[in-house]
Specification:
6 strands, Protein-Tyrosine Phosphatase, Chain A, 11 helices, globular, 6-stranded mixed β-sheet, about 230 residues
Length: about 230
Amino acid sequence: MPIDLPTVAPAAPPLDGREKLRAWADMWLVDHGFIRDVYWNLHSVAPGVWRAAQPAPHHLRRAKAMGIKTILNLRGRRDNCGSYILERLACQSLGLTLVDFPIRSRSPLDRETLAAAGRIFTEIDYPMLLHCKSGADRAGFMATLYLFLQGGVPLRQAMKSELSLRYGHLKQAKTGVIDFFFETFLAQSDGTADSFGPWVTNIYDRNALEARFKDSWLAGLLIDRILRRE
């Protein structure tokens, strides 16, 4: 089933004191926000484009001070998640545009989602910051795609830059399907940015790609069970 295309987050309802405390506890303890308070995994992708892990309100204040105008949330709308509740409230109070665009990191994306991923870079207001939960995999996918489609960077160079252990990305785990997706594109096309859209539309086979991809169970144990990535 295709994932919803990008949407601007609706206005956030106000919270009373108890609801706000519950949201903070959920963000900090359940969603591992205490780790991001130590290390936010913030990095520059290109002029006007940044990548990071899930922001807390104080991170968003920092982003506002950096001149950021748009937050691209790759986790999507999660009304019961404290991180999202506080993110939406903070963006609203700071005048930041929050765009919800949920994508996966452990299985290939649908054609509709890939088309939207390429299109969104021409539609949002810059400077922008894109984020997932840890800033490693989904953020890496979109940062790579941005450099390739909009920055004129050769795909292998963009992959080397953005899909790296430096950010916590492991291609040996299930999240390596991101690398395998790009490698498949390179093997089945001329590897140029102009060929990406036609390849997605006419050649890309999500089910075949997923069937061919093999991951390491040991790397998967680290990512899924120990680090508990999404």
